[in-house]
Q: What sequence folds into this?
């Protein structure tokens, strides 16, 4: 039984309502004294209990009713925590894992792909979940967060909150999944019948990166071309491409000189453009399946843009939720192909990518949130691309999300993890993510998932590899 007034339910705000409903997961890798495993487990468990008491939002539960997501907070809820035992004879050696530089394949397992909120009426699932796996001489801390209320920035906030608790440090944490704006429509999904689509269609037409899904498979899921047509799913693989700051500085200087610009492009813009050109070329030339999708005339780079510093300034100070929108660079496929083969063409593409990201301002955000608020069902809101199309790349960064958080775990001789790896139930297709790294790090780790054929071609691409220091995996 819940004590009186302990249990509260509310709808997710519109932006969370229209966000993906699976889990995101990262694994923090620490060395650990095997003799102190139980001490480590008990300390993490107690830290989570204390965190729950301070911020019930982190321990809340989500459920759906007719496709709408609601969040329930209760003083009886805790953040689920468990120790995952290694199968007999399968415990890995942490030092070997570190020598291998924590290859991404170690973090692609079915257990990381836990179910989300896929149906119309799903039962209660936790906002967050934490588990521990031990290696010989190491501790792997897995953090799961429901994407319906969290993005990369929220992941950073959650990691900081747990880390602070392990150190017995009190710190402010956001406690609301709504942010303070004047317009109430930006917090609610309209209560309409599916037949009342006219205004929704009008608004979604002004947001070309979105589309209406025909099958309630969303929200924010790809709108597949010819969904009823059988298309062979290629065998996939992932690798991490390591770029040193020195090589990226050379790339940035080359772009600046070629464009005769007064300003050097950022490392992010330069790396995103470089990846766009070479990964697109590798996919288009090598992903030819018996029943595949032919490449279209336009190539598209999908960047995920955190709009917190670009809109509603100050309104998100107490907000724990999603604040990311796609910004799409669309150019001819010939132009992208040329950028993979010629430095001048590559340099000219960088300001185009920057320009497509710079359009994300408060007006841009309001327009898209207004569209979402008019959806008769948030699961109708899809993104207007098919990841199976070889001329599309989804690019994102988690570089500043969590690697500098300090921890105090018994048996762990360091205050920061050796590395943070993204963990999923399977490889992606046409995705690139800059992984978390410490502030003092002099490298960028780009985690790329592709078909096996495209990955082989990318690794054999001399113009790509001349910028790469080494590969992991």
A:
């Amino acid at each position: 039984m819940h004590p009186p007034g302990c249990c509260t339910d509310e709808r997710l705000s519109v932006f969370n309502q229209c966000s993906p409903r699976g889990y995101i997961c990262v694994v923090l890798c620490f060395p650990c004294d095997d003799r102190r495993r139980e001490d480590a487990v008990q300390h993490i468990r107690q830290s989570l209990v204390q965190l729950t008491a301070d911020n019930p939002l982190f321990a809340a539960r989500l459920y759906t009713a007719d496709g709408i997501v609601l969040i329930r907070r209760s003083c009886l809820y805790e953040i689920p925590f468990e120790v995952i035992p290694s199968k007999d004879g399968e415990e890995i050696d942490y030092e070997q894992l570190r020598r291998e530089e924590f290859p991404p394949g170690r973090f692609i397992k079915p257990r990381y792909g836990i179910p989300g909120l896929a149906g119309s009426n799903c039962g209660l699932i936790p906002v967050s979940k934490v588990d521990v796996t031990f290696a010989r001489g190491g501790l792997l801390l897995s953090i799961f967060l429901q994407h319906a209320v969290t993005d990369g920035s929220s992941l950073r906030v959650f990691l900081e909150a747990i880390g602070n608790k392990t150190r017995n440090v009190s710190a402010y944490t956001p406690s609301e999944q709504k942010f303070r704006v004047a317009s109430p429509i930006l917090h609610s999904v309209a209560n309409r019948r599916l037949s009342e689509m006219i205004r929704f269609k009008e608004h979604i037409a002004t947001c070309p990166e979105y589309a209406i899904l025909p099958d309630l498979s969303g929200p924010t899921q790809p709108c597949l071309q010819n969904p009823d047509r059988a298309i062979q799913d290629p065998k996939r693989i992932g690798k991490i491409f390591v770029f040193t700051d020195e090589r990226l500085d050379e790339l940035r200087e080359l772009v600046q000189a070629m464009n005769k610009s007064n300003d050097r492009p950022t490392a992010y813009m330069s790396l995103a453009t470089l990846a766009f050109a070479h990964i697109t070329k590798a996919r288009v030339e090598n992903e030819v399946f018996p029943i595949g999708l032919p490449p279209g005339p336009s190539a598209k780079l999908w960047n995920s843009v955190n709009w917190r510093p670009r809109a509603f300034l100050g309104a998100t100070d107490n907000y724990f939720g999603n604040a990311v929108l796609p910004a799409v660079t669309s150019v001819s496929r010939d132009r992208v192909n040329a950028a993979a083969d010629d430095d001048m063409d590559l340099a000219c593409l960088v300001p185009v990518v920057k320009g497509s990201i710079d359009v994300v301002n408060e007006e841009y955000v309001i327009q898209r949130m207004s569209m979402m608020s008019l959806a008769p069902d948030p699961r109708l809101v899809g993104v207007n691309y098919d990841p199976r199309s070889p001329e599309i790349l989804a690019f994102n960064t988690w570089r500043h999300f969590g690697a500098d958080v300090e921890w105090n775990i018994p048996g762990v001789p360091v205050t920061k993890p050796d590395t943070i790896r993204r963990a999923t139930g399977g490889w992606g297709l046409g995705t690139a993510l800059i992984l978390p790294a410490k502030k003092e790090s002099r490298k960028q780790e780009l985690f790329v998932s592709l078909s096996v054929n495209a990955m082989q071609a990318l690794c054999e691409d001399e113009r790509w590899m001349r910028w790469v220091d080494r590969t992991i995996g």
